[in-house]
Amino acid sequence: MSVKPSCGKLEIPKSRRRGEEHRAKAILPEPQIETGGSHSLPTPDKEQAPHDTRSVRLDEPQQPGDGADSKSDNDRTGRLRVQNHHYLRTTGSPKQESTPARRRSLHNTRRAGVTPRAAGPRVGHDHDITSEKSMGNSQGRGGREAVRKLREERLNGGQPMLTDKTQKRLQGLSQCSKNGHKVQRVFQLMTNYPDLWQEIAANISRNKGAQTPGIDGEIHQDACLRIDTIRENLRTDEYRPKPTRRAYIPKKNGKFRPLGIPTATDKLVQAMAARLLEEIYEPVFSDHSHGFRKGRSCHTALDEIKHNWNGTKWIVEADIRGCFDNISHDVLMELLAKRIEDRRFLKLIRSFLEAGYLENWVYHRTYSGTPQGGTVSPILANIYLHELDEWLDQKTRAFNLGAGRAVNPDAKRRYGSYQRLLYRARKLKAMGQPEKAEQLAPTIKQRWEEYLQCPPSESHDPNFRRMRFVRYADDFVISIIGAKSDAQLILDELNAFMQQTLKVELASEKTGIVHGADGTRFLGYDIKIVTDSNRVVRTRGGKRRSMMRGVVTLEWPMERALKFACERGYIDNIEDCRTRPRCPLINLTEEEIFRRYIQELRGVSSYYSRAKNWRYVGNRLHWLCKDSLIKTLASKGRTHRTRTYSRLRKGDAIGIQLENKVLSLFSPKAWKRYKTDNPDLKPKGSIPDLHG
């Protein structure tokens, strides 16, 4: 039975039967749609039926003057945009335009004027126009795979995803390195996979440094337009990195740190090399290394110390003098050649190291060090110091001795006396003599206090030793459970290894041995070991429990909080701690001033959320921040701060009323500490959103 289309309508016979062979279909010619992918949908190979001549052709621009505005016609010549996962007809007769759109799958082309969008990997922020449900139902297993990719793309912020071929190739690098084999054809991966370049370019574009030019004045957007040219230059060995632009940034100690800012093209190529190096070395890096690694941070390093360093007697603190500037090129290339067997890729890495820099338009050669400020510099430093991690792991296995400490006989005797008295009191109660049991209560309490004063195990057991270490970039600390002579021997061997093997030196002013009770400062925290057995803590049930000896604590230094307040302008100086208004913020609105203070307080409070005295120091800093905020708003309104405080007071906090919420500066009572028992997990957030 034939079907005759007329004026865009579809005539269907009255007698309908079950089965696809009796259903009328109108197949439209599929226009050429330019998409970011190379895959297209299968088109039924049947005779094409006539279609409405007024429907929009996506491959041909509309001519102005056909009864519609030329601007709207030009807008309709672009890629067809479909909202809410429905296919919408673009033009047609007035009767057709009033017809509601119907949901169709990718293979359904029965509606006039609508052509399914080609499937495949997307480029940019445009998502697939089809719904996930229709894709899964119409394409079976392939549709479910497309749904998975679509969800990954949306979770990735609309950035283009890697193809399965590229992902398998990257996984092959990681697996090969993990199995102990040398990785080959790394340079080929750089030049033959354009989707990987698109991912690298998208990652760089989200950074603020993308707009920072090098010596040629080129920014990241200019380099993205020449990705194909860059790949071709790499393939033909015509690519040469340019010298970096030397800049200086201030350090906390008053000195300046030199940075080398590469050009936009070099930054893109360095990011590609760093991406491949991460795939090769990330599976083999030590679990005690936390600097410049994906999924790790300062908090993960501090969590490892908090969970694993109980009982520490001595702490060896060490810092490498000018680590990034003094890395030996020859040693680094030898370390890279241990796991990478690709001459062209290693040659590219050496060209980055020897590119030199320009300072005041004077060229200087680089004989050592990595290009600090470049994208590839952190991973190269981690590869260089990975030899230190392996050496420390080897020393740890050789140093550790014994399965546990010997039991303190004095503590065992006192605990036995306490248990006997407790058993006697319970037996007297069972025999109906509670008065005699109450008479034993003071003695039982005294025996328990005596037991708490005594360590449960031998503090100086010669048959028990432990060594642990944590490294973040070029700063690392070593925990020693043993004699001080053992710690001194480890430090001497460490100095010899750094000078002979890695060709670097330790900074004498930042390297030494300290007792656990005195503590050391690492990543802005004070790490101390509790030695006073009289210190107690209150549990959730209200009971008091002794902290015992040897427990490691992380503390927020008060001087760090006061220094932060002084640098931000909350106070005049650290000695007086007198708050003052921040006059440069007076010209801003009240909402902008509030948000500035909230962001600053949230940042420092979130970082120090691991500290035991978090709320104590945070309460002091919060008061300085709040008083400075009130004085700033009072200066802005030219009124007294008492009136300003009365106007802004919202219970325990101060805030302003916005359209749909209250913007408040919460007190430390409302902060929530992030807790985790797994030191490998990266902390997500420490305090709630202080925006109200």
Verbal overview:
With 692 residues, the chain is an alpha+beta fold. It has 23 helices and 16 strands. α3 packs antiparallel against α4.
> What is the tally of helical segments?
23
Helicity, as a percent range: 25-40%
Spatial strand sequence of the major β-sheet: 2-1-4-5
* Shape type: globular
Give the N-terminus to C-terminus distance in angstroms.
68 Å
What class, by secondary structure content?
A: alpha+beta
Tally of DSSP β-strands: 16
Q: Kindly report the average pLDDT value.
A: 76
Please state roughly what percent of the residues sit in beta strands, choosing from under 5%, 5-15%, 15-25%, 25-35%, 35-45% or over 45%. Answer: 5-15%
Low-confidence stretches: 1-143, 676-692
Largest sheet: 4 strands, mixed
Radius of gyration, CA atoms, in whole angstroms: 34 Å
Keywords:
692 residues; alpha+beta; 4-stranded mixed β-sheet; 4-stranded antiparallel β-sheet; 23 helices; 16 strands; 40% helix; disordered N terminus; disordered C terminus
SSE layout and pairing:
Layout lengths: L69 H7 L17 H4 L34 H8 L1 H15 L8 H15 L7 H6 L2 H12 L14 H5 L2 H9 L8 E7 L5 E6 L2 H18 L16 H11 L5 E6 L3 H4 L2 H9 L5 H11 L3 E3 L2 E3 L12 H23 L9 H22 L3 H6 L1 H12 L13 E7 L2 E7 L2 H17 L11 E4 L4 E3 L2 E5 L6 E3 L5 E3 L5 E4 L2 H11 L21 H18 L6 H24 L3 H8 E2 L2 E5 L4 E4 L27
Helix pairs in contact: 3-4, 5-10, 7-10, 10-15, 13-14, 13-15, 16-18, 20-22, 21-22, 22-23
Sum this structure up briefly.
The chain has about 700 residues and is α+β, with helices and mostly antiparallel strands. About 40% of the residues lie in helices and about 10% in strands.
